[in-house]
Design brief:
By secondary structure, this protein is of the alpha/beta class. The chain contains twelve helices and eight strands. It has helices at about 1-15, 30-35, 65-80, 130-140, 180-195, 200-225, 235-255, 265-275, 280-285, 335-340, 350-360, 365-375, and strands at about 55-60, 90-95, 105-115, 120-125, 150, 170-175, 310, 385.
Amino acid sequence: MTLIIAALLLLQFGPRVPLAPAETLLEPAILRAINEQVPSVDAPLDTIGSDPSAGWILLSCRDTQCGAAERAARKISMLVASKALPQPARAIRVASVVAPPLMPGLKAVIQVAEAADRPFQVVRGPWSTASVVDEVVELFARHGNNAVESRPFERVGLLPFDSLGIPSSTIVVNPAVSNDQAAVAAAASAYFLATLPNAGSEALLSHLMIGAHARLAEDGRKAVALMGPQQRASGEILTMFANAIDREQRRIDSFERFMPAPIDPVVHGRIADMEKTITGVWSSVGITPSPFIPPAERIRGRGGEDRRVPSRPGNAALPKVDLPTAFLKFDNVDLVVSELGNFIDGRRSISDIRDAVSSEFTPIALPVVVEYFERVAKTGAISIK
């Protein structure tokens, strides 16, 4: 009896084994169930959500490379069918091609790509659609394997959901090795996003702040390297870091994308405080003593600024036009051109868009961006006012 009481006291008051980061989002029992579930090829690929108004989550893949994505969907489908997991509010679907009628209600995309010459990786979404999806996928991808590399945005041969304004993150898996880890990461990420808001919501907000500082540290190192030994920050460097902070603020703000309307005022207030707090990185890295000013409110004062605002109907991809010769210097010209279109929101000026894309990739001369937008405007796809 004494031993039993001692054991109970130790369980209650003794040192606790710390949870892994992913276990702060989904309970260890849920992660274990997802990891151990062996999916049947007969299991359905769709998990019917309990609330059609809550939208849905897509697991996207190529036609012949859907092994890990389908395995992920079948894991969740079987666990929900057996009542081992509660049915999510949002549906989880797998598709290699998504027709326009299916787009309404799509909250997030987790892409699973196969690449024979690469290790298991997570490729973040572009700056234009920065969201909580990157944070969630990175946490679950690292569960049980902290060596997973996270890379900046690149097109890994999958559908360009960013042009539709839909946030996405990509899991890259080598087809020559087991895709179990990719399937578990995709399944856990999809299930977590499909159940937001949930018991891990508070932990996600905390992880977002930690992740924001980690990503801004990457940008800070880039800024310091560009400043050189004398550590003199040019206007281009200040622009880059300001847009990086703006990116993380928009990522934090995207949490509300998964909240039911109307947004809880307490949650909204906390998110606003988090967005304000993250600007403290601006002065702490010592790049400049001047106060942080959001890119949208900054007065540049440089010659040749173009304050005209491009806009377009809907989110259709921009038509291809002959690119100005200066674009040919970019190895990733397709990504640069795509992001120029993605940042068109009817609010950002041409100079704002130029600054954002230059910050993400490499500086682009303003006249080159102006020339590109004017060529697109001649097709009627956008208007510039």
